[in-house]
Amino acid sequence: MARIAVVGGDGIGPEVTAQAIKVIQAVLPGVETVDYDLGAARYHRTGEVLPDSVRDELAGFDAILLGAVGDPTVPPGVLERGLLLKMRFDFDQYVNLRPSKLWPGVAGPLGAVKSGEIDFVVVREGTEGLYAGAGGVLHRNTPAEIATEESLNTRFGVERVIRDAFARAQRRERRKVTLVHKTNVLTHAGGLWARTFEAVKADFPDVTTEYQHVDAAAMFMVTAPARYDVVVTDNLFGDILTDIAAAVTGGIGLAASGCINPERRFPSMFEPVHGSAPDIAGEGVADPVAAVLSASLLLDHLGHPDAAARVTEAVASELAARTPGAPLRTADVGDRLAAAAAS
Amino acid sequence: MARIAVVGGDGIGPEVTAQAIKVIQAVLPGVETVDYDLGAARYHRTGEVLPDSVRDELAGFDAILLGAVGDPTVPPGVLERGLLLKMRFDFDQYVNLRPSKLWPGVAGPLGAVKSGEIDFVVVREGTEGLYAGAGGVLHRNTPAEIATEESLNTRFGVERVIRDAFARAQRRERRKVTLVHKTNVLTHAGGLWARTFEAVKADFPDVTTEYQHVDAAAMFMVTAPARYDVVVTDNLFGDILTDIAAAVTGGIGLAASGCINPERRFPSMFEPVHGSAPDIAGEGVADPVAAVLSASLLLDHLGHPDAAARVTEAVASELAARTPGAPLRTADVGDRLAAAAAS
Ligand SMILES: CC(C)[C@H](C(=O)O)[C@@H](O)C(=O)O
Ligand SMILES: CC(C)[C@H](C(=O)O)[C@@H](O)C(=O)O
Questions:
Q1: What is the CATH number that goes with domain A1-94+261-343?
Q2: Does A140 score more than 90 pLDDT?
Q3: Minimal CB count within 10 Å: which of A138, B85, B127, B263?
Q4: From 3.40.720.10, 3.40.718.10, 3.40.50.300, 3.40.1280.10, which CATH number describes the B98-255 domain?
Q5: Where in the numbering of this chain does the Isopropylmalate dehydrogenase-like domain appear (chains A, B) (predicted)?
């Protein structure tokens, strides 16, 4: 039976993950969960973000479900780098998966786009590019100061994520992959991405492809989001594009994500895209839908596509039944979703 | 009297710049213009994009007005790098200025946003960052291939563009500057940008400031674009954000831009953001509004703020009077705008 590490984290994180676990247990009775106390509170108490011993323990789980980490009392970047990015790199989570869907019942900001018209997934590279941390600063705080950031890209790293994107496209109805980069300016890395894309494409003759520069893609995500099916792109471009994707589908409050090691040599990590929302923490009013959708990605990854689909359908019914603006109780939503998914 | 080099370029470029020049001549009679034949046609004829001799001639003008370069027959990147980026670097056009306004009469894609509610300008750095071209490829086309791209940032380059942004904010009503970067991940360059921003801010006590990560900014440009006044950011982030900005204000068809050397040691270059649109070239139906708005930026840069304002007002009236979807004739629009701006 699957073993899941639960990192509730800060603010509303523990509240929403509790509902996600409730739902997972409803569709996969007997699943084992272990709570880990990581995030702002632990950082303040011990000065530690992710001790090596905890990292090594986490490595033994099948998957990690995370709520949200961070609050205004922690210097920016500390938890992001020390926990989220560290897991992505240490657990080789090279597929950063972000589905975007305009759900029935959800009013997106785009006047002309109806629900059902947006349904794509961004496959963002998770272990390379500008996230490598390469770079430096000289002559800090003087007029002569310079700073560099280096994007590191390997054929190995680019090829495996592009293959994953094609494989995902093959399992979808439209079977289309859009490569996004900036080949006209970033000729070195862009060339590697484009060459690798062409090479992989040959192995997936039933998948159609297109290429877009990142600036054009950022525009089309707003003006024509329906055109996308699977988008594959580098780490930083993916970071930006997935937030646009969340915006056009009703906000990060509904967006799920998975940081995935497809071979399952290491645990993958699933989390809602929203933050810890300290302003409403502890009130039991946070919407757990994004956490529950992340749980659905987790179930799919662990080889339970039917359970995953039932969870997604439960969320779809929940959203379709909602009255816009009506208050909700976190636990009630979790109960409803668990009941709907179980049946 | 001002001397302007006109690079009509490809596709609809020459058609729209002709109208922009018509308008400039109406508000600044006696202005001298010289046409330069650069773009796809010249590239095919001579293999050259921007010969040094032409570059040196252009250097003697007060400003350059460009239509659009590129068409499907030229390998991607050749004209962009050989002409547009070369001018930005050779003419030290470090302020890449992109105003975004939802004009009365223009229906943007955001259902809840009314015209007048979006009115901001992005000050994008134009001579540094990932556009430096630094980087390389090893073991091309083998499994061992790696590619790097290096973002180069200097205190000199960052400070001057941030100062420009603050100075622009001071001349606007809301007097607010938003710095956009990704300091939680790009700690080296992000640190330089953040430190420099803090230092410059002290010299502009009447300007309010905020900081946003680029992913959050990309989202807020869609969900809350009214919050921005002046946005300052690096070269690549600016490339992406300005296309989102164009999207939420009715598309790149209306967007103007200037690549500016504020000290006027070199000519600045002004161009509509749209491309050469080869599909409608030569039919006289291209909308010259973005080119005319670029001409307004040119006039402002050359020290004619009143003329610039008259051109902008003429465009505002033109757009407000339009029937959505009604056909237009490029030259008629130019005539109307010239007449309105002259009076
Ligand atoms: C918190 C931050 C490091 C992270 C990223 O940049 O990847 C976040 O924006 C995300 O998209 O998961
Ligand atoms: C054509 C390209 C090189 C250019 C850029 O990336 O700056 C364009 O996208 C722009 O925004 O002016």
A1: 3.40.718.10
A2: yes
A3: B263
A4: 3.40.718.10
A5: 3-337
Q: For position B186, what pLDDT does the model report?
A: 97
- ∠ CA A148-B268-B62, nearest 5°, is 150
Q: Which fold has domain A102-250?
A: Isopropylmalate Dehydrogenase (3.40.718)
**Is residue B42 within 8 Å of residue B13, measured between CB atoms?**
no
Q: How many helices (H) and strands (E) does chain B have?
A: 12, 12
H-only helix segments in B12-122: 13-27, 40-46, 52-58, 78-79, 86-90
Of the candidates B90, B78, B89, B72, the one whose C-alpha atom is nearest the C-alpha of residue B38 is: B78
Each residue of B46-75: pLDDT tens digit?
Answer: 999 999 999 999 999 999 999 999 888 998
Mutate to test the interface with A, among B114, B139, B146, B158 (most CBs of A within 10 A): B146
Known active-site residue B71: no
The more confidently predicted of residues A128 and A114 is A128
Write out the H or E segment, with its range, that includes residue B105: none
Above pLDDT 90, what percent of chain A?
93
pTM: 0.97
Give the pLDDT score at B251.
82
